[in-house]
Design a protein that fits this description.
heterodimer, A: alpha/beta, Rossmann fold, 2 domains, 6-stranded mixed sheet, 10 helices, 10 strands, globular, B: mainly alpha, ABC transporter involved in vitamin B12 uptake, BtuC, 3-stranded antiparallel sheet
Chain lengths: 254, 352
């Protein structure tokens, strides 16, 4: 295979004296769905936070398409092509569902503050384009019918879907999903799996996801990384992971 | 007819339409009243200041309601706009004889200088998260007031004369523009109700243009969830700065209009109380609610003036009204009722 979309080498972070993540090597290739699993407190979300520069890593390098992003800030990383969702949903609660998605497209359509105040044709054209693209995204996630209601009044499952839609609106190369199926019933989870595969194909992106729902992970991930106490315990295909003794031990205990 | 109804009551632009309609109708009614019957002096003297406070309230709502930051020194920006406009108008009195043109130039000067002050304050402060903006604007309001209280500025045939201490600038047949604690004296009164009305329309137009755009969405997203906004590429400090500077510009314009409505104006007028008063208007009208700000400002500014004849009881009534309305607007039942009513009206509009 060629250059990976995401290449993490020897990544580590310390909080005071506590080493939360250590010596993590991880690659995600184009068009791949990769799972990151592990028991509670293994450091999965911490890895996401380092990738999106919420935390500064103590050691190691992060490359996106061969470009070093280890010194960028959150905004720059998003512009470089990483978008994410959050474990505890973070929507813009007072904004409409539509505006949540539209906000994601802010950096893709440039018009100046001058265009804004004087309502130039450029603004109109950009806004129409944004509207069109946002509608498309909302339809994919079955949110089109509730586009005008406040994001905070959506049901839980729909809020999760809206977060993914908003992340996709930034046109990422790599999408990080932090427990996308948390709080969903089996039927919703099934639908979510299909949606994840669909957006991977439609937008041609790579996806790295954290998930506790093993049926989802084993079903849609092509490769899986297992974290335990901040270090890599195992990596491989779903079948390899399912039969790995160390992994079983970590999850079930001795 | 259908198109017209949709424009007026279309879901997307409803709030905007109501704002403009409300202001225009109020203007027409008041103008008609003034031509028809003779209004009391008290009433006519309240018109321009009310317009100014509405603009100031709208500008503060942009910061407090839409961008989620607290500003405790908006009177400071008003003061900057006011005294810049006084100076500009005084200096230009000979070169621009047309009062309307001079008013426009003076208001522009006031808003630009105020905007610059806003930029200087917000660029460093809004890089931080937390209540720093409230602290800095609080200080700004006090500093500006003290600063203007100590400025002596005049001009004559030799040019401008300026001093921080000396109130005797030995002008050669010239004119004092600012005289320390006395403030502006003998300013030409070139502002009128129509100019206030037009300025409100402009302010509304700017604010609605901004909040319906990608910049507005960025401003509100940064308010709702900072981390999520950053994760989708919204530059927090830039967007908050944009909101704050726009607000400072509008506050400056309102101050400029205010100053040019009086022949004398003291810097002490723009103290901490004024800042808080406007904050009360905004909170009373609802954070992020433009129509609410307009109505609340009008009611709360005019009410104490109208109650002047009741003397000591005036502030008591004022306080009671404040409490009752805040209680009422927070009751869920009343909100439901209003929603039902507006839905009914909306449906009727479509059916026709």
């Amino acid at each position: 295979m060629n250059v990976p979309v995401l290449e993490v080498k020897n990544l580590g972070i310390d909080f005071g004296g506590l080493t939360a993540v250590n010596k993590l090597n991880l690659e995600v290739y184009a068009h791949e769905i990769v799972g990151l699993i592990g028991p509670n407190g293994a450091g999965k979300t911490t890895v996401f936070n380092m990738l999106t520069r919420v935390y500064e890593q103590s050691r190691g390098t992060i490359c996106l398409n061969g470009q070093d992003i280890g010194k960028m800030n959150t905004v720059e990383v998003n512009k470089a092509g990483i978008a994410r969702t959050f474990q505890n949903i973070r929507l813009f609660g007072e904004l409409s569902v539509m505006d949540n998605v539209k906000t994601g497209m802010n950096n893709r359509f440039e018009y100046s503050i001058f265009d804004t105040i004087f309502h130039t044709p450029k603004r109109k054209k950009c806004e129409e384009e944004i509207e069109k693209k946002a509608e498309e995204l909302l339809k994919i996630f079955h949110l089109y019918d509730s586009k005008d209601i406040k994001a905070s009044s959506l049901p839980y499952g729909a809020q999760r879907r809206l977060e993914i839609a908003r992340a996709l609106a930034t046109d990422p190369k790599l999408l990080l999903l932090d427990e996308p199926a948390a709080g969903m019933n089996p039927q919703e989870t099934e639908e979510l799996m299909n949606t994840i595969r669909f957006i991977r194909d439609k937008f041609d992106i790579a996806i790295l996801l954290i998930e506790h729902d093993m049926s989802l992970v084993m079903n849609i991930c092509e490769r899986i990384y297992v974290l335990n106490y901040g270090t890599l315990l195992a990596k491989g295909s779903p079948d390899e992971i399912r039969n790995d003794e160390k992994v079983i031990k970590a999850y079930l205990g001795d | 007819m259908k198109n017209f109804m949709e424009l007026l009551f279309g879901k997307k632009n409803r709030s905007r339409t109501i704002s403009f309609l409300m202001v225009i109708v109020a203007y027409v009614v008041i103008e008609a009243l003034m031509h028809g019957i003779r209004m009391s002096r008290l009433f006519t003297s309240l018109l321009v200041p009310t317009c100014c406070y509405i603009i100031l309230g709208l500008s503060l709502n942009l910061v407090v309601g839409f961008s989620g930051e607290l500003s405790l020194g908006h009177a400071g920006f008003m003061a900057v706009g006011a005294f810049t406009a006084v100076v500009a108008s005084g200096l230009l009195s000979s070169s621009i004889s047309n009062a309307i043109l001079r008013l426009i130039v003076a208001v522009l000067c006031g808003s630009i200088v105020s905007g610059l002050f806003g930029l200087v304050i917000s660029v460093p402060v809004l890089k931080l998260s937390g209540d720093y903006l409230a602290i800095v604007t609080l200080a700004f309001g006090q500093i500006i007031k003290s600063l203007i209280t100590n400025i002596y500025l005049g001009f004559d045939s030799n040019g401008m004369h300026f001093s921080f201490v000396n109130n005797n600038l030995s002008l050669n047949n010239g004119k004092m523009l600012l005289s320390g604690p006395m403030g502006a004296t003998d300013t030409a009164k070139i502002a009128n109700f129509t100019s206030g009305f037009v300025l409100i329309l402009i302010a509304l137009f700017i604010i609605y243009s901004l909040i319906d755009s990608k910049y507005g969405r960025a401003i509100m997203s940064a308010r709702d969830n900072r981390i999520a906004a950053e994760s989708i590429g919204v530059d927090i400090s830039k967007t908050k700065t944009l909101a704050f500077v726009t607000s400072a510009i509008l506050a400056g314009a309102s101050g400029a209009l205010y100053a040019l409505n009086y022949s004398t104006l003291q810097p002490a007028k723009f103290d901490f109380n004024t800042s808080i008063l406007v904050l009360v208007y905004v909170v009373f009208g609802g954070l992020g609610n433009i129509n609410g700000t307009i109505v609340a400002t009008t009611v709360l500014y005019v009410l104490p003036e109208m109650l002047r004849s009741l003397q000591d009881y005036r502030m008591l009534i004022y306080a009671i009204v404040l409490i009752v309305v805040m209680q009422l607007t927070n009751s869920a039942k009343l909100k439901q009722y209003v929603e039902k009513l507006s839905k009914k009206l909306f449906k009727k509009g479509v059916a026709e």
